[in-house]
Amino acid sequence: MKDEQEKPRRSPRSEFDFINSLRHRAGSLTTQSLFMGIGDDAAVVRNSAGKDTVITVDLLVEDIDFRRTTTPPYLLGHKALAVSLSDIAAMGARPLWSLVSIGMPDDVWQTDFVDRLYDGLLDLAHRYGVQLIGGDTSRTTDKIVIDSIVTGECASGSSVMRSGAKAGDQIFVTGSLGAAAAGLRLIERGAHLAEQNLGDEDSQKLDHILLRQLRPEPRVGWGMVLGEERLATSMIDLSDGLSSDLNHLCDASRVGALIDSSLLPIDDRVQELCGRRALDPLQLALHGGEDFELLFTVKPENTARLPRKVDGVEIKRIGEIKSASEGVKISEGSRTWELKPGGWMHFSA
Amino acid sequence: MKDEQEKPRRSPRSEFDFINSLRHRAGSLTTQSLFMGIGDDAAVVRNSAGKDTVITVDLLVEDIDFRRTTTPPYLLGHKALAVSLSDIAAMGARPLWSLVSIGMPDDVWQTDFVDRLYDGLLDLAHRYGVQLIGGDTSRTTDKIVIDSIVTGECASGSSVMRSGAKAGDQIFVTGSLGAAAAGLRLIERGAHLAEQNLGDEDSQKLDHILLRQLRPEPRVGWGMVLGEERLATSMIDLSDGLSSDLNHLCDASRVGALIDSSLLPIDDRVQELCGRRALDPLQLALHGGEDFELLFTVKPENTARLPRKVDGVEIKRIGEIKSASEGVKISEGSRTWELKPGGWMHFSA
Questions:
Q1: Which of A14, A53, A63 should we substitute to test contact with B (largest number of B Cβ atoms within 10 Å)?
Q2: CB contacts, 8 Å: B10 with chain A
Q3: Are the CB atoms for B177 and B247 separated by under 8 Å?
Q4: A263 vs B: CB within 8 A
Q5: Of A237, B47, B71, B82, which residue is the least packed, with the fewest Cβ within 10 Å?
Q6: Domain boundary residue among A133, A155, A177?
Q7: pTM of the model
Q8: Pairing of strands B131-139, B94-104
Q9: What is the ipTM of this complex?
Q10: Residue A259's beta-bridge partner residues?
Q11: What is the extent of the structural domain holding A38?
Q12: Residues of B in contact with A129 (CB under 8 A)
């Protein structure tokens, strides 16, 4: 969960310029490995055995990515692993192993915080057959930091990069959009999970929205299906927000896109609850981050091969890849406008 | 470089009890992988291709593991990778890939700190053919955190665990002992690297000692030779200090040990400079941490096969593995006493 909406999680130079310069400096391909990692959802290393290894790392920092007071440790452990599993899914790979580094101040080490954190992480790991194989622990002076590392594998050459979309490909998204960002805003206004289920329909809807923020569900099954069946030509997970992540994908693929706003699978409960709270569901769906759904592209001739559901989660076609010269756009009825990145980075202005 | 000698880097429950409980909870072997990681220097995953993958993670936290004021960013980048390369070496494996997560406050991101940090990391990486393939970046509220991940590989089953020592095995150590801990103490007293080489013999010796603390050299070559030639029956790197790390190795192997103090390769310059500064070279060599030398055991019939030098670094026999009932001991002349762990954990009492 994020702290200050006015400030980007990343420093202005860190995420994009910095990663680009680092990609350049980290350099050329070696004889040991073919890697295409920095700047995609995960690093890919080609093994000799017909398999590629995929590795992702996610650093979560207290008061930047979560608040100790509003994130129960069990859900923090879940989320630390979930964001990494989502990256592996976005590569079309099967997650295998997890490592986690945890830094905490002494007073937190003395509590059961870390046990509950591992409960959350291990419950999610077991659900997907992922094994926790290592990590590191340290004291810190005051804040909690968690670095989550997940490795996965896929058949050689079958990892799905951000860079493979071609004009004419159809754009799909899993699940629904907007609830994670709505949940963050409601938490910031003081909402919290019901202590017990009161059966009250409204509080169930509220919990659903809060849990999309606090307990994101990585689309592991969809990632594996899209990778193994070679259905997706490109893929990214929605961590920064649809508008930002679609622009990342289009930049990497050197293409444009046209999204039809009427097709966006905006979360029903966001539609219902947000109107009363002066939140705009469409804005949340377009620019809100952390839905951890998968955004992917499919050649027109392959869309009929897409399964209807994986693990109970549906997908929705939301638009089409265009040539780069057409830009990244969204239509609403007869109007069409440019869809600028509006997630994390938006708030840095 | 470490901050407060009175406090352990780890919380009392984190390093040993915690890792043991986690090893238990992380659970049983799966069909996908054989892993033996938690509690050794690195995790080991058996691949299908006759190779094992070794993965290690090291979390460095500002004001716990280093101070921003006394550690130039170039050397911090070097050290972040060096400690992980040392873990890979201690498994007898060849390092291949590096990932690094960096969290820094905004004001540090605005400087060239991160560029210099990567300079140090990449220079060391290139020296050993290690490729930086990914990582994550984040803002933090005030402190710098660095999480360094390195993967390596070795032939299936040839990784060197802490647990393989048998009574009668000879105990060896690479390089020399005590300088890293001496360097830490001198830095705490205000010593710093000479701005330029003045040719002054004493300041050259001082720089040598300070650099053993600030710029540790992982014994990558020795690790690979000892693993590939199957010469070492057990191995650990000296991060906590000889007394602590020997006890870790003996605990894991369920053996005892007898060290001959007259055989310890105490750094010459520590011997020369420390007497004048009321530091005891033997105590530094036994209990001082962060020498990042390799401590390993060899069957008596294999000691003749050991190379004399690797990458210009010699080894020294310092004692012999005994049965568990004989305990972990050190002899000095005719006297023998118990060698208790006296590194990091010592200062927590």
A1: A14
A2: 137-139
A3: no
A4: no
A5: B47
A6: A155
A7: 0.87
A8: parallel
A9: 0.85
A10: A319, A330
A11: 14-155
A12: 30, 32
